[in-house]
Amino acid sequence: MKKTISFLILIFIINLIGLYNQWYLIYPWFDQVLHFSGGFLMAILLSIYLKNHLLENAKLKNILIVLGAVSFIGITWEFAEYLASQILVESIYRNFGIRTYFIGDLNDTINDLLMDILGAGLFLFVLHFFRNRKTHKIQTNP
Fold it and tell me: Mind telling me which residue stretches traverse the membrane in this protein (predicted)?
């Protein structure tokens, strides 16, 4: 769990560096990689955090809970980006001389949310694939 939180902090720092260096404008894939990674790591964190609340024999329900929580966090992040673009852009330029932006157009927002969900989905797929494989080995090798 500590490693996951450390990686999330690293993604946030990379995000700040990317804003400063305008990597979002230079490298179109940069935003997608961060959102995908963020969704993946948030799914790990939420799976650990919600471990005692997830049901043993309700895989679909558990997947929907984690995907829903990751989606909620992604939507909250998009709202924060929107608010930052309304409040911070001018003051950052005025005080630090840095031109930045926090949010793109609707296509960017939808793509960000899709990457969050796909990142979480990949984690959940890998988690359930390895759990099923482990369970299958235990059942076939008594």
Answer: 7-27, 33-50, 62-80, 113-130
